[in-house]
From TrEMBL:
GO terms for biological process: isoprenoid biosynthetic process. Keywords: Isoprene biosynthesis, Magnesium, Metal-binding, Transferase. Its cofactor is Mg(2+). Pathway: Isoprenoid biosynthesis. One of its GO terms (cellular component) is cytoplasm. This is Geranylgeranyl diphosphate synthase. InterPro entries: Isoprenoid_synthase_dom_sf, Polyprenyl_synt, Polyprenyl_synt_CS, Prenyl_diphosphate_synthase. GO terms for molecular function: geranylgeranyl diphosphate synthase activity; metal ion binding. Belongs to the FPP/GGPP synthase family. NCBIfam families: FPPsyn (NF045485). PANTHER family: FARNESYL DIPHOSPHATE SYNTHASE (PTHR43281), OS07G0580900 PROTEIN (PTHR43281:SF24). It comes from the Eukaryota.
């Protein structure tokens, strides 16, 4: 075994160990890169064997680990057999599988680093501490990752999308701070920690949310690079729309009005969820697509995709509220039941709610069918993750 070598496939990095073939070291240069298909090709003139044959020879292959192909000694007979088998098939391709956990870990870290730098502690200290307390409290960063993934899908990159990705998380954090207030949902726990108003008081919590809302737009305008002013203005308009009376605010108002009302139907429940939850997820995806230079047709397909996963997110949230504990959720469980809130399980039952979630996931994936499958993999996996999340 020799030292490891690193090869890049687009934004992916794979590390392969040096092979020991017939008693001599062979470097990973024997592997031919096909960047257009994000695949590795195994050429017959080089002493590297295919993944299929590696399995036959009991050789382990682990993409996304520091050792992808184990060292091995091939006998003379195996070597000759390999050459004969490759005569009619000189090049064999294998697609490297997409690793969603690695992707989320890398993107999540990038988002967290950017958020950490976006707001520093300065005068007035208390308000900045309150903003950072909730913004940096953790979470899965689904919305900013959706923004980045959509941007990359249509040809953009992470750096281009990052200021808007951070802005989306600031808006999301604002909505959580305000939702938790005694005059709204009156919650004591968020992301496993005391809610903002429990730590800083109701007055500062309101102002922290307001400050995050304003700063989100400032951050987009000041920090976005390499995007035309026309697209930046379009991004700002899209984000404003998903917050106001066509988005979060509208959903929250109707949600509050519906508390304790026994006759609320599915149509009104869908209105609440599409505006209160799906709107910001939709905005995250659409903003990423705009920044990446997507066509209007591509933007609309991604809008429909995002609306499906946004509604899916809330349906799953409703199910988890009645099936998980507060410790598992990191927030107060059973709250919807205690306040007699309209939810999908309440109106159609748990099983029908799960069936509806499955349909939404399928509908979302269908919207991505015309995009490059490798580039769409993060969004497809994110939809699956939302559908199957446990907290």
């Amino acid at each position: 075994m020799g030292s490891a070598a690193t090869m890049h496939l687009g934004s992916w990095v794979q590390t392969y160990s040096v092979l020991n073939y017939a008693g001599r070291s062979i470097t990973p240069s024997c592997l031919i890169l096909n960047p257009f298909r994000k695949t590795l090709q195994f050429h017959k003139q080089n002493p590297v064997f295919s993944l299929t044959k590696a399995k036959r020879l009991d050789i382990s292959c682990y993409p996304y680990t520091s050792t992808a192909i184990s060292a091995v000694h091939l006998s003379k007979e195996d070597r000759l057999k390999e050459e004969v088998e490759n005569e009619d098939n000189p090049i064999e391709e294998t697609t490297i599988p997409f690793n969603f956990k690695t992707y989320m870990y890398q993107k999540g870290n990038s988002v967290n680093e950017a958020l950490e730098k976006s707001i520093t502690v300065k005068e007035p200290i208390k308000i900045h501490e309150a903003m950072r307390y909730s913004l940096l409290a953790g979470g899965k960063r689904v919305r900013p990752v959706l923004c980045i993934a959509a941007c990359e899908l249509v040809g953009g990159d992470e750096l281009t999308a990052m200021p808007s990705a951070c802005a989306v998380e600031m808006i999301h954090t604002m909505s959580l701070i305000h939702d938790d207030l005694p005059c709204m949902d009156n919650d004591d726990l968020r992301r496993g920690k005391p809610t903002n108003h429990k730590v800083f008081g109701e007055d500062v919590a309101v102002l922290a949310g307001d400050a995050l809302l304003a700063y989100a737009f400032e951050h987009i305008v000041n920090e976005t690079r390499g995007v035309s002013p026309t697209r930046v203005v379009r991004v700002v308009g899209e984000l404003a729309k998903v917050i106001g009376t066509e988005g979060l605010v509208a959903g929250q108002v109707v949600d509050m009005e519906s508390g304790g009302v026994t006759e609320i139907g599915l149509e009104k429940l869908e209105f609440i969820h599409i505006h209160k939850t799906a709107a910001l997820l939709e905005g995250s995806v659409v903003i990423g697509a705009i920044l990446g230079g997507a066509s209007d047709e591509e933007i609309e397909k991604l809008r429909k995709f995002a609306r499906c996963i946004g509604l899916l997110f809330q349906v799953v949230d409703d199910i988890l509220d009645v099936t998980k504990s507060s410790q598992e959720l990191g927030k107060t469980a059973g709250k919807d039941l205690m306040t007699d809130k309209a939810t999908y399980p309440k109106l159609i039952g748990i099983e029908k709610s799960r069936e509806f979630a499955e349909k939404l996931n399928k509908d979302a994936r269908d919207q991505l069918s015309e995009f490059d499958s490798a580039k769409a993999a993060p969004l497809i996996c994110l939809a699956d993750y939302i559908a199957n999340r446990q907290n």
